[in-house]
Amino acid sequence: MDEPINSRNIIYIVATPIGNLEDITLRALNILRNVDFIICEDTRVTKILLDHYNIHKKLIVANAFNEANQINKIITEIKSGKSCALVSDAGTPLISDPGTKLINEAIKNNISIIPVPGPSALIAALSISGFPSSSFVFEGFLPQKKGRQKKLMELAEEERTIVLYESTYRIVKLLEEIKQYMPLRKIAVARELTKKFEEVWRGTADEILDSIKTKTVKGEFVVVLAPKDFK
Q1: 19 and 52 in contact (C-beta within 8 Å)?
Q2: Is the dihedral of CA 8, 16, 167, 184 positive or negative?
Q3: Is 126 helix (H, G, I), strand (E, B) or coil?
Q4: Do residue 217 and residue 164 come from a single domain?
Q5: Same structural domain for residues 145 and 79?
Q6: What average pLDDT does the chain have?
Q7: Please, are residues 161 and 225 in contact by the beta-carbon 8 Å criterion?
Q8: Rounded to an integer, what distance in angstroms lies between the CA atom of residue 190 and that of residue 193?
Q9: Residue 131 has what DSSP assignment?
Q10: Closest CA to 94 of 116, 73, 72, 110
Q11: Backbone angles phi, psi at 225, to 5 degrees
Q12: Which of residues 123 and 197 earns the better pLDDT score?
């Protein structure tokens, strides 16, 4: 049964697939079909999903570069009696993605915010890592320059499972740093989760580097590090 859409003062935080377009809930599709507009990071990316399911909606771009400038426009639209969905390029919005400023402004304006849960690269990678997940640390993307070494030194002493995100361009650098600061730590590196070329490497950073350096690897990476004393 379709979920009734409250058309007044509401933002749905809608999780979308991280790769495989079939990984979307029926509830999410129903909401995307019935809201007045969709807030996205990149229209080209979001349209791939919408076109696949024959959904045609007004799209408003709010990303890391223009979110601050778009907030008033979006809040005004919602307060005029409209509903909207916030999506990211992939996965659950606001997890290492923009949107926090918008949501806080919506809270100030008494706009209802409803989560529509679904895919998350963080949880997907953690679930297949083989490492304890009852308590873990999610650091997202490490600082690129200032504070990076300090953060790595802190993580080297972390006794819980650690989850990091990394890009194609910096994955080798990250693994080399883990090799330096946490040489014996067991890790799992997942690439392109749920997609055609999904891969998972397991071992120490040194062992995984040998595999990754011998081939051209592209896509988004999730790196899961076992607790400090994990055997």
Answers
A1: no
A2: positive
A3: helix
A4: yes
A5: no
A6: 93
A7: yes
A8: 7
A9: S
A10: 116
A11: -110, 130
A12: 123
First-to-last alpha carbon distance for the chain, in angstroms, is: 48
Specify the length of the chain in residues: 231
Helix, strand, coil percentages (3-state) for the chain, rounded to 5, are 35, 20, 45
pLDDT in tens, 191-224: 999 999 899 999 999 999 988 887 777 888 999 9
**Neighbour count for residue 46 (Cβ, 10 Å):** 23
Per-residue confidence at 10, pLDDT binned at 50, 70, 90?
very high
Nearest residue to 209 (alpha-carbon basis) of 223, 195, 219: 223
Whether the pLDDT of residue 130 is over 50: the answer is yes
Q: Strand pairing of 187-191 and 199-203?
A: antiparallel
Q: Which amino acid is at 155?
A: L
Q: How far apart are CA 168 and CA 148, in angstroms?
A: 18
**Two structure tokens written together for 161:** 């499972």
CB neighbours of residue 183 within 10 Å: 11
Residues 103 and 164 in one domain: no
Domain harbouring 93, CATH code? 3.40.1010.10
pLDDT at position 109 is 95
Q: Which of 116, 150, 180 is the last residue of a domain?
A: 116
Both tokens assigned to 24: 């979307």
For residue 3, what pLDDT band results from cuts at 50, 70 and 90? low
Tally of CB atoms within 10 A around 218? 12
Nearest residue to 102 (alpha-carbon basis) of 138, 73, 128: 73
DSSP annotation string for 78-90: HHTT-EEEE--SS
The verdict on 141 and 198 lying in the same domain is yes
Indicate the number of domains in the chain.
Answer: 2
